[in-house]
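Aim 2, interim progress. The first record below pairs a target sequence with its C-alpha cells.
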Amino acid sequence: MISTTYFKEASELAEKYDAIQYFDRLKETEIPAKIISNLSDFAVQNRYFQLDKLSGATHSQDPVARWDREINTELVKRYFNPNTPNNILMMELSKTMGDWAMIRHHDEQDNQINNPTNFIRSNITMETKQKYGMYYCFCIIKALCELQGNMNRTLYSNAYLNEFFMIFRIEYTDAKRKKSWNPHSPYKF
C-alpha cells in the first residue's frame, strides 16, 4: 500500500531529524494508519465515487461510508460517553417521541433512520466523531510539519512550508479543545 510505504519512510526520516516523538504519538492506536489509508485511497480513486455511481462503474466505494465504518466506529467505541447528563436526557427524550414522531433520515453509511432513538443516537455521537476525527488528522499533519521544520533547521533550507500550516502549530491539548478549525482569516484559534 502506497500510503503506508510513504508513512514508513517519513517515520525513518523522523528518527534522523529528531521528530520521532510526534510520530510515536501516531503509533499509539491504529486510527492514524486507518486515516492515512482512507485519505490515500480517496486521493487515488474514491474522490470520483459520485461520478462512478452515476456512470454505473463499481470500482470505488463511498468515501463517507468508508470513513464512518473504519474510523468513526472506532472513535465512538473508544471515546463516546453515553452517560453524560445531556446524552442521557436526549435518549430519554427519544423514548417519549416513539409513537408520534416521524423520522426520515439517512446516516453516514446511507442506512435509513426511521425512529427517534436511532436518530438521536446518531446525532449525539456526531460531536465525538468530529472532535476526535479532526484531532487525529491534526496529529498526522503536526507530525509531518514538525518533521519538515526540523529538516529545514538541520539542512539550512529556505522551504518553510510550515507557514502554510499555521493552524497546526498549537499544542495537542489545545487541539482537543478547539471548537473551530477554520483555516481562513479571520482565524479563530
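The second target in this work package is listed in the same format:
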Amino acid sequence: MVRRDGLRILIGCMLTLVGLTAQAIDWADPAFENASLLDFDHDEVYSPLQLVGSAKNRTKRPAGNDQAHGPGPIIPEPMVFDLVRPLNARAGQIEANVLAIFPLAKGPGGVAGLPDPIGTVPLLGKSQGVEWAPEVEWCPRDGVTWEVEFPFIDDRLEAVKVAHQRMLGTGFDDRFIHGWQAIGLNDFDSGTTTLAMLWVAGWRFDKTWSMISLVGGRQEIGRPGFRATEYLQNVSLFANVSDDLIVGIETNYQQETTGPAACLLMPQVQRQLSPYWQLQGGVGYRFATGGSLPEAAIRVIWAN
C-alpha cells in the first residue's frame, strides 16, 4: 500500500518539476511570452496568449460536442496515447475519462521489461492483468492544460502520472496546429521515475481526413541513476464519417536506445453519445521484441 502522505508529496514534486519545465521553455522563447506573431510559410501563426478574447473564431466540434475551441483545426485525439485536452482548448474546460486495456492472450505482460509505451503503467514483464487509468484534465488558460492520472493494474494502484501541455501555434490557413507535452510518471513498485517530452503536431487535410503525431523521448530514472532512454512516437490517422462518428488507426512506437522495441497498432472507433459523453474502443496488436499479443482498449470520456 502507498502511504497517503508520500503520495501527496510525490504529486507536488512532479507538478513543480513539470511547471518549471514549462516556465523554462517560456523564458527561452520571448516571442511566445510576448504573444508576437510568428511567420510560418507566410501564414499567420497565433501564440496561446492571443487566443484570449477571440470568441469570433469559435466553432463547434465535428463530433457533436457543443464546446468551443480556439484557432486551428479540429483534430480527434488518439484513444491510447491521448492528449491533455485538444491543443486549442479554451480556459475552463474540464475532462474526466477512464482508459482500460485488456490483453486478449497470455504474453510476457510487458514490452521486454520496458515501461509500457502508452506512458501509463511500467509493467516490467510481471503482470497480465487489466490496465486501467482514471484521469482528470483541466485547462486553466487558453491553450494551456494539466492532467493528473492514476494508473492501476486490476485493483492495485501502480503509479501516478502528471502531464502538462501547451499550444505553440497554427499555420497554413488553420489546417496545421502544434504544441508540446511534458509527462512525469512515478512507478511505486519499481521505485523509478520516467520523464518524457514530446512535440505534438496535427494536420487537417479536408472535412473528412486528419492526422496527429506525437514525437519525443523519455528518460527512466532510478537506482543507481539514469536508466533506460527511449524514443517515443505516435502517428494516428482519422476519418470523420459523420457528425458523431470517427474511425481511425493509431500507432504507438517505442525504441530503447540500447535494447528492445515495441509497436502497438490499434484501429479504433470514436462515438459521440451526447454533448458531454464520448465512447472510444478498438482491438489491435502489440508487436514487441520480448513477445507480441493482441489487445483491446476502451475509453469513456466526459467533457464540459
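The first helix runs from residue 4 to 28. This observation will shape the mutagenesis plan for the next reporting period.
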